[in-house]
Write a structure and sequence with these properties.
This protein is of the alpha+beta class and 217 residues long. It has nine helices and four strands; from the N terminus they run ααβααβαααβαβα. It has a four-stranded antiparallel beta sheet with strand order 1-2-4-3, sandwiched between helices. The termini are far apart. The structure holds flavin mononucleotide. Flavin mononucleotide binds next to loops.
Length: 217
Amino acid sequence: METKVEQAQDFFKVLRDRHSVRHYDPTVTISQADLQDMLKEATLAPSSANLQPWRFLVITDQALKEKLLPIANHQQQVVDASAVIAILGDLEGYKQAERIYEQAVASGYMDEELKQSFITRITNGYASMSAEKIKNIVLIDGGLIAMQLMLIAKAKGYDTVPMGGFHPEQFKEAFGISERYIPVMLLPVGKASESAHSSPRLAVNDVTFWNKMTEGE
Ligand SMILES: Cc1cc2nc3c(=O)[nH]c(=O)nc-3n(C[C@H](O)[C@H](O)[C@H](O)COP(=O)(O)O)c2cc1C
């Protein structure tokens, strides 16, 4: 019982201590193994039909970070952070359904018949879905994993900043990313060189409606 409370407090500390960091110590490197661990934990995030359409392009090479600088509106954090994780949404992620549900069968969570019916439903569902709807799904799933990744990084003593301030088409072209993928966000990860400040939030009452929506201000 006591342990549970302690864990919860740690979690809330991580939540409160996470701030967008824009100044990084350029001498800090994060090993590929550490980055991989963070990504592994992050992939525990939920996703639509568990299709996990997130893909990561991890940029650690200094020359590539420099190449990213003008594409990211010269935001210096892409050069100074240890790594920039580009979170991409795979518009064809649903094609992994067989592989994913196979694992569910192997783990005993699903039988073969249920697996087949899920796959048929997913395949037919995505085949009749508009491109815009698929894009929305991968953006939502990409946002969920981005948040999870930021908190995991903070829990491990690293800092991050979610970045939408870049040119997605230029980014795709410069990094050889095909039309199959949609850039969701860039996520520099590293160690802050200056402590970041907390930013204001609207009051819960300003953003919450109970049972009935009314016009906000
Ligand atoms: C989708 C998205 C895009 C953002 N793009 C940028 C960006 O390009 N550059 C930047 O410095 N911060 C960016 N931010 C960070 C926000 O400014 C920041 O999250 C917000 O001010 C709240 O501060 P906090 O993250 O420290 O709590 C972005 C945040 C989100 C969620």
